[in-house]
Amino acid sequence: MRAYTPIFLVGIILSSLACDTNYRTPLPPERIDHVESVFVHGPKEYSLLVRFASIAALQTKHFVLSEPPMILDDVMPGDPMWAVYRRVDVVRRYQIDVREHRLELHVRSMRDLNSAGWKVERNLDAPCNGTMPTE
User: How many domains does the chain have?
Assistant: First the structure.
């Protein structure tokens, strides 16, 4: 019986380490249509002014993100801008649960990004191929 005690203890330790793994649960992405304006508050903080046709009103959606958003200038002139908001729950056993927030913006050009009250210098005529640094 004593010969099995160390093996039993090693098994308990290994099983407790295996329980501390991260579980990632992606939530369904939210597509946000009819974006009128994009406000950049900081590298990971954005607000979208969205037009809702069903209630004939504008609403602001505010996002604090886990990382800077991906900004794509793939919307044709005259077409409405749009965005995709993604959340992923990361559950860590014996630790605080985390939610990752990501935003993908589809704009006509970099001129559609508004500084939300702070001045930033950037080349507005440069093409955007992926994430644009806002610092």
Answer: 1
